[in-house]
């Protein structure tokens, strides 16, 4: 039977033809260079924003009629809002906020409306002695500055309350307390829990990796499906099936077209990964010590290896799924009808990964990280932000590899059936009947 024919050399010949035809096209090369430049530009965006924003200092005015309250608010706001990032030299670091008291309220409100002032912290006292703090801004009310202003209001209230203690009590100068978080399910590196800053960094990188995987599957998966379906609509199929078996043709086309897509992906991704891996060093070289703290500090070789492995396995699985759909249709135009369901499958994995990245570490995260086609997304997300036992990773990989084998066998059967029905536009019943006869 044809399905027992050896893959080589026919599959290799088909793969080489598909790969070379795509890689040598002018459109392929131009799009690769353009996408590479865009991707590197996006990766450097945090540094560019820091570069153009480093000279900017937000002006925040404090308005209150009480001199002591004004001094306490300014000192507390400076202690909370102007904290140097880790590794920054206090002598070279420029505080992002200039906080001072303003005496003319009407002028301050006018300056805020005109954009000459970034925010106002107005402190008053109600009839019962309770402090009333109002934060005014032209930006979003739930932004970072608003949150910091809320912390400032709480701290000022505490200081105001402690001022009512008996005379002689020595409270000292307000100091911002050290604050750390620990998670029982957080990631561990070399036997030590990863600190909160790196956990946040890994969450950011995990989101980037998941988005890259999702977009790659959608774009290059359609390449595979279109390539498999294209020759079924032309007379080239009559010549090809006389020289190679359906199994050899399908495997060669999936490897060749998928390889061309992966080549373009690697050409785009490798420079981006290098930029992300050395982003802190690049930022320090351009911005000085103030460039520390960019959201890529959690990137390790182990995480890169995990991303590469689950990306390749996930891509192989979805490439075969797309090839199965391309084998089923009789014309490339028919793929448009089936593209949405395929996109929803990849979208489901993407959304599951986002749920994991947002902190889900229970049964849902474990289950989706073991069940294909969700597992490439969810297991990678779990590895980025939580502790995963080695046996879970091994089980996920094993189930994924087994699923790839089953999908490959089913895809070959579908393609062989489509070859038998070449030149026809059969319904599902006729297709199933032909597949059963081929069995």
Describe the structure.
- With 439 residues, the protein is α/β, with parallel strands linked by helices.
- Helix content is 63%, strand content 7%.
- The protein has 16 helices and 6 strands.
- Strands 2-1-3-4 form a 4-stranded mixed sheet, sandwiched between helices. The protein has a two-stranded antiparallel sheet with strand order 5-6.
- A hairpin with a 5-residue loop joins strand 3 and strand 4.
- The longest helix is centred in the middle third of the chain and has 35 residues.
- It is elongated and about 100 Å long.
- The N and C termini lie close together (10 Å).
- The model has no long low-confidence stretch (mean pLDDT 77).
Short description:
The chain has 439 residues and is α/β, with parallel strands linked by helices. The chain is built from 16 helices and 6 strands.
Keywords:
D-Maltodextrin-Binding Protein, domain 2, two-stranded antiparallel ribbon, 439 residues, four-stranded mixed β-sheet, 7% strand, single chain, alpha/beta
| Shape field | elongated
| Sheet of most strands | 4 strands, mixed
What is the structural class? alpha/beta
Per DSSP, what share of the residues sits in E-state strands of 2 or more residues?
Answer: 5-15%
Number of helices: 16
Q: Into how many domains do the coordinates divide?
A: 2
Which radius of gyration do the C-alpha atoms yield?
A: 30 Å
Return the average pLDDT rounded to an integer: 77
State the total count of DSSP E strands: 6
C-alpha termini separation: 10 Å
The level of helicity is 55-70%
Question: Taking strands numbered 1, 2, ... along the chain, how are they ordered across the largest sheet?
Answer: 2-1-3-4
Unreliable segments of 5+ consecutive residues: none
Instruction: Give helix and strand order, one letter per element, not per position.
Output: HHHEHEHEEHEEHHHHHHHHHH
